[in-house]
Amino acid sequence: MATVETGPGRHPEWYAHATGDKFGKIADAPIGFGHMKRKEDARFIRGLGDYMDDVRLPGMLHGAILRSPYAHARINSIDTSAALAHPKVAAVIIAKDLETLGLAWMPTISYDTQAVLAGDKVRFHLQEVAFVIATDAYAAQDALQLIDVDYDVLPAIVNCRKALDPDAPLIRDDKVGQTDNLASPLWEAGDKANCDRVFAEADVVAKRTILDPRSHPCPMETCGMVADMNPATGQLNIYNGNQAPHAHRTVYAQVAGLPEQNIRILCNDIGGGFGNKVPVYPGYVCAIAGSIVAGAPVKWIEDRSENLASTGFARDYLMYSEMCSKGGKITGLRVDTIADHGAFDSTAQATKFPAGFFHIVTGSYDLQGAHCQVKAVYTNKAPGGVAYRCSFRITEAVYLVERMVDALAMEMNVDPVELRMRSFIRSDQFPYETQTGWVYDSGDYHKAMKLAMEIADYEGLRKEQQEKLARGEMMGIGIAFFTEGVGAGPRRHMDILGLAMNDGAELRVHPSGKAVVSLSAQTQGQGHETTFAQIVAEELGISPNEIMVRHGDTDKTPYGLGTYGSRSTPVSGGAVAVVSRKVRDKARQFAALMLETRAEDLAWEKGRWYVKGDPERGSTIESIAEYAYSASNLPEGLEGGLDANAVYDPPNLTYPFGAYIAVVDVDPGTGKVHMRRFIAVDDCGVRINPMVVEGQIHGGLVEGIGQALMEIISFDEQGNCLNASFMDYLLPTALECPEHGFELGETVTPCPHHPIGAKGVGESPCVGSPPAIANAVVDAMYHAKGVKHMDMPCFPARVWAAMNGREQPPQ
Amino acid sequence: MKLRLANPGHVIDINPIEPELNYIRQEGNEIRIGALTRHVNMLESDLLARTFPDIFREAEAVLADPVVRNRGTMGGSLCQSDPAEDLSGVVVALKGKAVLRGPGGAERVVEMDEFHIGPYMTAVGPTEMLIEVRFPIHPGFGGAHEKVERRAGDFAIVAASAALSIQGGTIQTAGVACSAVGPTTMHIKRAEEALVGKAPSEELFQQAGQMASADCSPNSDGRGPADYKRAVAGVLTQRALSRAAATALR
């Protein structure tokens, strides 16, 4: 194997690939943190995963949903008789049937209500209208075409700017007292008077209207469920890939009035979530109701079009923004936002924060004043507002602040990196309280920015840009520096539907010294089976290969709120570290008995308690485990066995950050953007498994490229969804990524309050990359043509329009 | 069919006759490609690369993705008659002729201008099938295919195919076609007429590009507004001709 210069963020396997020795040796599993192949990949890459659609139960029936062809229409009547006459149809359920079960409407996670099946009106294109249950999936589809629905079409609102016009049709006439399309009252953060004063004293003010367009998380596996209500026992088994199985169980108990102890949720492998599998969807309630009505298991698996057109979308924030400077530094930010929630408000957020964590909008800068306000409206579009690979609207906030810093730099005529360097929160200012009330735990922003510039050769890039400009070529360099707040959250501040945002862990070390750790967090592909085993390994000295990570079965795992908002390591990771330390403390008691000494005379080294001053005398965790379960006599107060439980309540969020630089070439003739380079320096504190971290960064950057360059859910004037297939909703491929790979770097600023100093990272790359790429495209157009703004997605026709001064915001 | 948009009464699998219809060969002054020749075969064919540099290879390299190219065929591309399809543009630019065979083995040969009669409509009759496409060979040949797409593997926003033969510093034959800017693959005849008999130059190719812009008839859709597509048709036509000429003179 050839010698390769090592650099930040590279690992042995990368080098093995880079040098052509792809079977190059990888170190065996580390006893603790370090590079390690993911334990779960052996089954995934061989196609041996076990997904929802793989569940086949005896006597199982198949459900399919009839959807509305209109965005807004009154339902006069629904005739199901022809469908019911189909020989393979077992039942047809419409709103009227659900009313008798009390299931016609369900609560959303934002304290709104959502129609399970439309009874009075349809309020978005492809809304759920009827549920057919048949003996096979084909017959269910055939029967959908036999249902006759009589509609009166109503005018539809798809533009959030027009939703509050006095003559706008009222979408939510089902809600008592609702007289307009306001979904939730104005919500504010920051001191407005102070912010206005800062603006009054400013030297330079930049203004932009910025749209973060509606996109979709698009997990590879769509949503679905197999509901199995046992009519004899009243036990309801639910096979459903979701990101928060325990919270879902509680919701089903509340919605359906079923005893919570009789509900068991089984998540097997999940083909991606990205926020799309946080909500409870109408199809789930239909499958459960269907199983109750039919007395048999009912499977409902949506197709790709249903996933894109009806399940939780992301973003759709229209932001009127101003940023100002004084003395060459950024001093203030104010933003007035319209949030488009669609027909039902099912935004994902913590209860106290109706705009999620959007008020982290001051970003990484030491500002004198900031104010943000958010107004949410209903439109005739699919409901959602889920946090697509994002901690509750932080993506929108980072997009806004990083676009605005570039806009301000243009108005000030300074380099965008220079303006950032002048305005960053300094490392000696942490913990730092922002103008909107966040307390950032730690950071060294200047260091990360400098490293990114070094990897990119920033000066060289600017020189190249000038040379190209002289030749009539367009090249852009885009910067984004993000700070996220992830790992919600402290129970004194945060809950969802009244449930504290904590997570549990249970650790059992067996007599042989092997262990099972059970989690409330739910993997969707993030590598939990490896990462969490490594945390236990680090704390107890057991090999990660001898630790099984159990999750996804509410009967066998402790309670907790699940995996989203980069919560896994910050919250569940904390729980696993704490529970491991509890077991370690208990092991110390046994070791004292075994070594015939006092517990306080023992010291710990990884995998072993030994006698202080006599390190030869010690007991390994393996021998302690054997002893703990043996028939030996135990003193009063010490129970046998080696296990423990923990519930972790994080004292604060964790605040990962990063410096990203995108380099693009833009074709002046066609508007095509070529993603040439992407430099990503991430600081997520201590890295448990650098290989998993890099995998997350690669994936998130690709998703960022998609959002910046091609992804949008758009609508025509009648409210028809125009992007309900992968032909129309484009996802990026390897060919849209920089051909020489992503250039990664890292700095490590450990989280001061997390048990192992880790911060979340799964979402960082998806949060930081869209503004970097958008800034790069605008940078190219600004230098060549003086263009100062365009909204994403930057696909060729839109870039061409922007460079010719004709850009329209996307609809 | 999966989306229940098409509901045919019968589906006939013609793969068993592939051995008879998967070929690329030279006969006299023609290249003949069988209707069941896979895209990957055309992409990798040395005969095509030698005879028509580099138009087939460029178009096939950006046509859909490897999975489609392994299964899709010449005949499938032409008979689908999707105006945004890449290979149809190449066939038009090369003045390919479609050989249709009917009952009893009766054959007729159809020019591409008569073959594509509208979006998703061809001259192939209900009892006929396309069996072969024939291309005239010209000395001093150079060709190119230019495509702008929203993402690799997507149908073209606009594509342009150019085929030139240049001898003695003069353009002898010219073929120009644009995809995704009209109801069928657009044959830009006015540009061809303007090119033949002239010495190749950027000014000439720019004029040809302007003719392509003027003569195509794009629609506004999710891939872009009509004015954008019209402008890009001109840009790509000029670029394709310029590269085709460079290849011819290589």
What would you note in describing this structure?
The complex is a heterodimer of chains A (811) and B (250). Chain A folds into three domains: 185 residues, Aldehyde Oxidoreductase, domain 3 (Alpha-Beta Complex); 328 residues, Aldehyde Oxidoreductase, domain 4 (2-Layer Sandwich), CATH 3.30.365; 146 residues, Aldehyde Oxidoreductase, domain 4 (2-Layer Sandwich), CATH 3.30.365.10. Chain A has 19 helices and 34 strands. In chain A, the strands form ten sheets. Chain A has a seven-stranded mixed beta sheet, sandwiched between helices. In chain B, 37% of the residues lie in helices and 26% in strands. Chain B has 250 residues and is an alpha+beta fold. The termini of chain B are far apart. In chain B, the strands form three sheets. Chain B has a five-stranded antiparallel beta sheet with strand order 1-2-7-3-4. Chain B has a four-stranded antiparallel beta sheet with strand order 8-9-10-11. In chain B, strands 5-6 form a two-stranded antiparallel sheet. In chain B, α9 runs antiparallel to α10 and α10 packs antiparallel against α11.
Task: Describe, in short, the structure shown.
By secondary structure, chain A is an alpha+beta fold.
Key features of this structure:
heterodimer, A: 811 residues, alpha+beta, Aldehyde Oxidoreductase, domain 3, Aldehyde Oxidoreductase, domain 4, 3 domains, 7-stranded mixed β-sheet, 5-stranded mixed β-sheet, 19 helices, 34 strands, 27% helix, globular, B: 250 residues, Uridine Diphospho-n-acetylenolpyruvylglucosamine Reductase, domain 3, Enolase-like, domain 1, 4-stranded antiparallel β-sheet, 11 helices, oxidoreductase (chain A), copper ion binding (chain A), molybdenum ion binding (chain A), molybdenum (chain A), iron ion binding (chain A)
